[in-house]
Amino acid sequence: MKEIFADTLIIGAGPAGISAAISLQKAGGSNAVVDRQSFPREKTCGGLITGKTMSRIISLLNDKAEDPAIFCDSGNVVELFHKGKRLTCSKLSERIYFIKRAHFDHYLVRRYKELGGLFFESEKNHKIDFDKRIITLSNGDVIKYKNLIAADGALSSIRDSLGYGKPEMGFCVETFIPKIQAPFGNRVKIFFGIIEKGYGWVFPSGDDYCIGLGGVYCQDIDYTGRLKRLLKMLGIPGDSCKIRGAFVPYGGVVDQSKGHHEIVLAGDAAGYVDPIFGEGLYFAITSGMKAARARIDPGQESFKSSYLRKMSSCVKQIRQGSRIQKLFFNKYAQGFFKRKLYKKNAFVRFFFDKMISDYKYSYHNMLGLYIDYNLWELKRRR
C-alpha cells in the first residue's frame, strides 16, 4: 500500500474537475484527480461553445487555447424553428465553435498530466472517508487530502453522501449523423415544440451533425421516440441510429451553505447549468477555476466560503433563469413567441450575441435587453 498526500483532492475529471486541477497545478499546489471512468470516454453533450465559454477556455489554457485539436467545427448562422416551421435565420456577429466531448475532455486530461498532475482513472471502487479526509483507491493505495472538490456529475454520489438535495433534473438524448446524409451546411438549428420544457438541436460536429433534444425530466416522455420523430421530420431515417442519453441538472443549484467546510461541489454536481438553454460547459469550467482560486487565495475566509462568494453571480443568474423557465416553456408563451419571433432575424442575432454568447444581461433584465435592442435597431436602420 502506498500513501500519497494532496492538498486538494478532485473527484471527477470532466471540464469542472479538470479545470480546477489545471488551475491548481499551474499555481504549484499539490492535487490529485480521481475518476471512475477511463479516458477518452463518450459523454452526451451537444458540444456548443459560446463566446463566454471560449473566454474561459482561453483563460484556462492560455496559448494552447488555439490548438485545433480542441474544436471540431464552427458556424455563424442560427435558425429557430417551431416544430417544422422556420421562424428566423440569423447571421451572428462572431462564429460559434463546437467540440466532441470525448476529444475535448481527453485533451484537458492530457494537458493536466503534462503539467505533472496526479491522475487516477478507472477508479470505480474507491472509498472516501470524509471525516478522516482520505480516499482509498481500488488497489489499496491511500490519498490523504485537506480539501475536496466534488465534480462527479449530475448524479453525484458525493452530493448524495453529504445529504444535499438534488437539483431539478433534465434529460437529453442525442445521436450523430454523417454530414453526407443531410444538406444542412454548418447552420445551427434549434427546434421548439418538439419536447415539453426543452428544445431540439442540430449542431455541426466535424464530419457529423449532432442531433438531439432535451428538457426538464419527465418519466412519461419517450425521449428516444421524440428524437426519432425529429430525425424523421429532418428526412433522416432513425432506426439504425446509435442514441445516447444522460441526466443533467436543469432547474436550480444545490445549497452548499451547510455541511463539510472542506468540500465544495462544482459543475453538474452543484446544479450549475443554465435552466433555459441547458448550457453547462460555461458553468463547469467557471466553477472549476473559481474553486481553484478559492483554494489558492481564500483570503480571510474558509475555502468553501471563498468559493461560494466567487460563484454568487453565477448562482444568481441560474436562480433567476429557473424562475423564468416555467414561463419560457409554457405552451401559451411558446405560441406567443412563435408569432412574435417570426422573421425577427435581427432580434435573434442581438439576443444570441448579448445573452447566450455573453451574459451581458441578467435574466431579470430582459426588459432592458429589449429596450437596448430597439435602440440598436434604430441606429442600424439609419
Describe the protein's topology:
Layout: E1 3-11, H1 15-27, E2 31-34, E3 48-49, H2 51-61, E4 73-82, E5 85-98, H3 101-114, E6 118-120, E7 127-129, E8 134-136, E9 142-150, H4 157-161, E10 169-178, E11 188-192, E12 198-205, E13 208-216, H5 223-233, E14 244-249, E15 263-265, H6 281-296, H7 303-310, H8 312-328, H9 331-341, H10 345-356, H11 366-381
Parallel strand pairs: 1-2, 1-9, 2-6, 4-11, 9-15
Antiparallel strand pairs: 3-5, 4-5, 7-8, 8-9, 10-13, 10-14, 11-12, 12-13
Describe this structure in words.
The chain is α/β, with parallel strands linked by helices and 382 residues long. It has a domain at 3-72 and 101-167 and 254-322: FAD/NAD(P)-binding domain, CATH 3.50.50. 35% of the residues lie in helices and 26% in strands. It is built from eleven helices and 15 strands. The protein has helices at 15-27, 51-61, 101-114, 157-161, 223-233, 281-296, 303-310, 312-328, 331-341, 345-356, 366-381, and strands spanning 3-11, 31-34, 48-49, 73-82, 85-98, 118-120, 127-129, 134-136, 142-150, 169-178, 188-192, 198-205, 208-216, 244-249, 263-265. Strands 3-5-4-11-12-13-10-14 form an eight-stranded mixed beta sheet. Strands 1, 2, 6, 7, 8, 9 and 15 form a seven-stranded mixed beta sheet that branches. Strand 1, helix 1 (15-27) and strand 2 form a beta-alpha-beta unit. The chain is globular and about 65 Å long. The model has no long low-confidence stretch (mean pLDDT 93).
